[in-house]
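Posting for a labmate who doesn't have an account.
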Amino acid sequence: MKVQVCIIGGGPSGLLLSQLLHLKGIDTIVLEKHSREHVLARIRAGVLEHGFAALMREARCGERMDREGEIHEGFFIAHDGVMDRVDLHKHSGGSSVVVYGQTELTRDLYEARDRMDGKVVHDAADVTPHDLKSDAPYVTYRDGDRIVRVDCDFVIGADGFHGVSRKSIPKEILREHERVYPFGWLGVLSRTKPVSPELIYSRHERGFALCSLRSQVLSRYYIQVPLTDKVEDWSDEAFWDELKRRLPADVAASLITGPSIEKSIAPLRSFVAEPMRYGRLFLAGDAAHIVPPTGARGLNSAASDIYYLYHAMVDHYEKGDDSGLDDYSRKALARVWKAQRFSWWMTTMLHRFPDSGSYEAKLQETELEYLFSSEKALGSLAENYVGLPF
């Protein structure tokens, strides 16, 4: 089989790039090691930068997002028993975010690829890139007992942190930067009315909490827990009781509880791999970088990678211009590190670190006091939250 671009990974990053390139007449194939049902069962964040939302519309996948997604022009930070609102629209010069579940976004992308007869292979086993430094790379995968070869011009590694793509870069070339946080987020999805029409980030002496939502009838809540905790340690009742303790009294009193639809613990990690290009291989999304979910940058950072790759590929095939491909790693990493900084700052300001004392607690209090006393500080937060320019 011969295509122009072989994409490893059938999550939102790979599907979005495949869709965008298809619309420009560039032939792609997506190889995903799991089934479609498995991919769509992943529960992930759903706060989209305005630039990501625009990219979905350009890919002709934004109709349901625009119909069912919720425009949020602000969010709350609860601390010391009070709620302060961050007015994104005011402090970012009129921008906002779209709250739309990643599962729904991925479903829209799959349906778009189906409509256009896009080549998406599921249950592709033992995916392996070859000859990445040559002008004729190829990828092999196993389909049952058969080995399938895909010849291509470029390979895109959008197969996540544990995927094969990043591991295909020699260790003497790859540089990895990592910080593992000493806690995780216990998340619960429930079919209940959200406690607030906008997100609430809560800093509390017992630990961080987040009140989020997927729709007006589907809520997503999180609490900070030790890495030693397991999902089985937390009954629904224990989760709701602990969440209420970390929220202002009036918010806790209005919280509607119900059975959990899904419950999981996600460890928090910051990670960046450099470079994001090796020969004809280009990394994108979690294959190259991961952020704590505090600042809602993970999926959005992946989208910026796709934006740069999409335009670079179009310039290559339509104009014979390789400057975008040559500059991809530098340009993508510049934005990635800004997202890392913002996520690190949000995480540090709002979480309780197990080895911190009164000094760190006072710094957190002072940081929040300064934030809500400074228009410029609020402007910086809002600018990063709605998304820096591509």
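Reply:
Got it, the structure tokens are right above this. DSSP finds 14 helices and 20 strands in the chain.
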